[in-house]
Q: What sequence folds into this?
């Protein structure tokens, strides 16, 4: 299950242009670290410091991915927690779609 979350992010991050910073997702017990500070995104499961950290449950992540939940409403309702660079957080939409 955790591997599935990682693989979905990796596939989308590989296809997206470099984020311009580092981003860490904490999805339940799974860590997805995306280093987009170079020419392309590199996705690992290393738990390291990131410019932006997004914490979300798998259930909420699936609703966001399926379009059943508005990202802004999820953040405002506390279902998604964002720490660090908000500009980087705004680029996340391309990784969920």
A:
């Amino acid at each position: 299950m955790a591997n599935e979350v990682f693989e979905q992010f990796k596939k989308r991050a590989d296809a997206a242009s470099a984020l311009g910073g580092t981003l860490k997702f904490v999805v339940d017990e799974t860590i997805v670290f995306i280093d987009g500070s170079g020419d392309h995104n590199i996705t690992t499961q290393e738990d390291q410091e990131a410019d932006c950290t997004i914490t979300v449950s798998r259930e909420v992540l699936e609703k966001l991915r399926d379009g059943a939940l508005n990202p802004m409403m999820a953040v405002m309702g506390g279902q998604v927690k964002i720490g660090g660079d908000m500009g980087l957080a705004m680029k996340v939409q391309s990784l969920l779609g």
About this structure: The radius of gyration is 12 Å. The chain has five helices and five strands. Residues 8 and 96 are 9 Å apart (CA to CA).
